[in-house]
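User: Before I run my own analysis I want an independent prediction to cross-check against. Here's the chain; please return only the structure tokens and, at the end, one sentence I can use as a sanity check.
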Amino acid sequence: MNTLYVFLGFMGPWQIVLIVVALLLLFGGKKIPELMRGLGSGIKEFKDATKEENDKKTTDSDKKE
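Assistant: Structure tokens:
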């Protein structure tokens, strides 16, 4: 979370506007919601996998004790 804040701290409003305009020019307005859905599902799968791995490590350390 902290690294995201640092990354966004370097970006001003004009940089964000420039990125949005570039995305609209490259993909068009109709394709962007589909891309965002795919990105969101990918992030959700990544979070679930990391949570599952952390839970597995926690239960493994509990068994060792």
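Sanity check: The chain is about 85% helix and 0% strand.
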